[in-house]
Amino acid sequence: MAANSILSWEEIKLHNTESDVWIVVHGNVYNATKFLEDHPGGKDLILDVAAQDATDVFEEAAHSSEARDILPGLLVGRLKGYGEAAPPAVYPVIGGAPTPAATQARERRKRRSKKAARCEERSRHHGSFRRWRSSLSWLQDGGC
Ligand code: HEM
């Protein structure tokens, strides 16, 4: 198993015995089988969290940096989906309908874009009027 494998809980759950035990700490999946007998805290503490997320118990035991240095050597992969971004925000929906606040916000956006379209139309119109007026005074001044 390559240390950079992405592992699902389905796969991790298969490694839950004394002869094959994986644990998950901070989204990293470790094969603790060979370390069981060497664990200063005893093998049972690790077996209690076999094939589970052991992050909390691992941290509660306030392991030293020496203990943490052992972990990379036991790494089998990363937990699938760990630390992924939250899904994009959506309009809050109550009973299938947008909330009044969401509806108001949408209405405001619609009004704003209508206003912007009106303004654009007017400035186009004024622009041609200005062009017409300036060519008129240019003609009055004798043209070319
Ligand atoms: C593969 C994962 C683990 C490794 C590499 C590991 C490593 C170690 C090491 C080296 C120590 C000696 C003290 C230290 O240096 O901090 C220790 C102590 C301890 N570990 Fe772990 N440990 C692991 C998992 C766990 C888990 C899942 C628990 C669950 C509660 C646990 C609980 C403890 C406790 C309570 C002690 C203190 C034992 C004592 O002082 O009598 N460890 N561990």
TrEMBL record:
Membrane protein topology class: Single-pass membrane protein
Keywords: Electron transport, Endoplasmic reticulum, Heme, Iron, Membrane, Metal-binding, Microsome, Transmembrane, Transport
Top-rank lineage group of the source organism: Eukaryota
Region (Disordered): 95-124
SUPFAM superfamilies reported for this sequence: Cytochrome b5-like heme/steroid binding domain
Subcellular location(s) of the protein: Endoplasmic reticulum membrane; Microsome membrane
Sequence ranges of Basic residues compositional bias: 107-116
GO MF annotation terms: heme binding; metal ion binding
Domain Cytochrome b5 heme-binding: 4-80
Record has Transport as a keyword: yes
Cellular component, GO, one term: endoplasmic reticulum membrane
Stated family: Belongs to the cytochrome b5 family.
Identification of the protein by name: Cytochrome b5-like heme/steroid binding domain-containing protein
Species: Apodospora peruviana
Lineage: Eukaryota, Fungi, Dikarya, Ascomycota, Pezizomycotina
